[in-house]
Structure formats: C-alpha cells, structure tokens
Specification:
By secondary structure, this protein is an all-alpha fold. The chain is 80% helix and 0% strand. The longest helix has 33 residues. The radius of gyration is 21 Å and the shape is globular.
Length: 438
Amino acid sequence: MMADSSAPADAAGSCGASSQWQLPFFSVWTGQAFSLLGSELVQFALVWWLTKTTDSATILALAAMMAYLPQVFVGPFAGALVDRWNRRAVMIVADGLIALATLVAAALFALGIVQVWHIYVLILVRAAGGIFHWPAMSASTALMVPEKHLARVAGLNQALFGVVGVVAPPLGALLLEVRPLRGTLGIDVVTALLAIAPLLFVRIPQPQRAGGQQVRTSVLADMREGFRYVWSWPGLVGMIVLALVVKIALTPAFSLVPLLVRQHFGGDAAQLGILEAVGGAGMIVGGVLLGVWGGFKRKIYTAMVGVIVLGIGFLVLGMTPASLFWLGVATFFVIGLVIPLIDGPTMAIVQGTVAPEMQGRVLTTMMSLLSLTSPISLAVAGPVADWLGLKSWYFLAGALCIVAGVAGFAVPAIVNIEENANGGATGIERLELAEAEA
C-alpha cells in the first residue's frame, strides 16, 4: 500500500538523530499539537452530548468501548504495518481519515438526523486512525530526537496534553453554548489539516531492518516477531500485567467522569469543563516537572510512585461528598499531575531501549494487550454503575492502583527493567535467542 520512500535511519536509533533535529521535529510536533486540541474539543463535545441526551452510564461505557475495540483487534496489525510502511504517509492518511469522518458527522448534525449509533461509528473510525497515527509518531520520535533528550520530550508531550486539557474543556463548553455542535466538529477538520501540512515537507526517518536486512516478511510474521520481542522481556511483561489489572477499574472510572459531575455533583458542561481543565493544569505541572527534573535515576521508580499517588487520588475522589465539588476539583489536579510521571518514563523506557525497527510493533502490541480488559470492564461497568452507583468504581480503581504500584516495587524484573533491556541477551539478541530455543 505504501512504499518506504524515505532513506533508512541509522540502526542505532535515536543515537543517530541529526544534531539539527529541533526544527524538523518541532514543525511536525506543532502540527500535531493543533490536531490534539481539535480532537479534544470533539471528544468533550461528543461525550457531553451523549451524557445530556441519554443520561446513561451504559451509553457512555459503550461509547468508550468503541474507542478500545480497534486497538484490540487492529492494533497488532497496525504496528506491523507501521514498521513496514512509510511513517510520514501513515500519519498523513490517518489524519485525513479522521478529518473525513468528523466532516461526515458535522453534516449529520447540520441535517438534524444524527443518532447515537452515528457517534459510535465516528468514535470507532477516529480510534482506528489513531491506532496507526500514534505508533508512527512515537516510533518516529525515537529516530528524530537524540536519546538523551527523549525523557524531556516525553515530559514536553505530557505538558502539551495538560495544556490541551486546560484549554479544551472550557473552550468546548463555551462553544456548545454559542454555536451548534457541528461548528466544533468543523474546528477539528481545520486542525487536522494543520497537522498534515508540515508532514508534506519534513523528512521522517525510516529504520533499517535488523542487521541491515531489507527483505520483507509477511505481516503475520512481523506481528509474531513483535509479540516474541515483548514476551522475551520479563520486565515489560510484568509491567503490562500490572497495567492490565489497573485498567480493569481505571478505564471505567475515567470514562464515567461526565456522569459523576452530572449525577453526583449536580453539575453541567461548565462544571465538567472546570474539572477537566484543572486536571489538565495538573498535567502541565507534572509534564514540566518531568521535563526539568527527568524523574528518578531509575525511570520505573517514577512511574510506580505515580501509580500509587494516582490510586490515592481516586480513593479521595470516591469519598468526596456531593457538596464539596472543590475537593473533587483539587483531587483531579493531583490525578492530572501524576499522569505524566507514569506515562512519560514508561514511554522513555520503551523508546530508549527497543530497537528502532521494532518500535511500531512493540508499541502497538503493548497497547493491544493493555486494551484487552477495557471492552470487558466497560461492558460490565455501565450496567453496574447504573445499578450500584458511580462511586463504587472510584474506590475499586484507587485500591487497584495502590496495590499495583506497591507490587511493582516488589518484582525484580520490573524494578530492573531498564538494566534487563540494555544488558545481556536483549533486544534483537533476545529475539534471536527465543527463535533458536523455539
């Protein structure tokens, strides 16, 4: 479908990144920042439309499920294909597909014929585009940015998510008050075009195959290679197992926040905007903190401490009385603050240790495994939350995060994940060893 037209990058990965990396990288990064803002505006508007129209936890849970299904079923294929195709072309096509789907949804709202299932399809298509776009951008970052700057770029990315989290919710609430929802959808189309524009001019490095091999195997063989690579890394497997346990409760807890605001705190779109904006402010602080500090010497320590604090935050949110909305807001600030301290170091570990030609497959394999529990937990969470109440999920999420964080410190393979990945039979050597044993 797409040929590798760009010249291959140095097999050393990000260590071979050009000394003049800032201009090309941040040109692409800025376009993606605009696209992220547009996407968050759409996300806020659609979620609030579903919340206000249906007032159902089941409907919200199903909507969230639509975002995870492509990751489960398409993710492993996407990673293998991203490692085979031209990554710049992948990002252009993915952004274009998302913009087209949003444009169709805007037309449905303009005609007054939109249905809930239309929103489900839109979320599904947008998620499918993101499955290809995210690993292409993440894997390209490892080749465009020198390795010593990867953790700081990860912190900068988290700060960006925080800025968007601050701006998008109140802006989305304001737009819903002053213009039809189709206007917000139109903004997302424009920001997608802004993301595509720099990709037309910036060269995105392509990785070499292991040992300089350019022979292409089948997609299924590449998928198996990605799974074997992950499976041969005990620390990564352990980290994924802990994350799977946490996501059973964490995914519904985040997905049901709009109903928590509407049903428990008695708020509207403005209150939801305030809550999410303050959470975004926390992400800014956390991202800046990570960018300046860089985290503990062992990046995994930073992530595990963040998971424990995240758990405490959800426990407090679950115990917050309806009359103390300000306490819920303050708690959401703390939750937002620790998210960069979890995601940033985790991404830096993968980007800094996984062979460049494997990163697309490894990243999507990880995300596919992490997404396995989400559709199941969301399918259960909606009806149960309608029956037992929303707060039960926040207690469960908090408890599981704390247990997972403490357990992470007790498992040597997880604690030593960076040393295990960089020394001995690791990377391609681990893969070759696993194949020889098979």
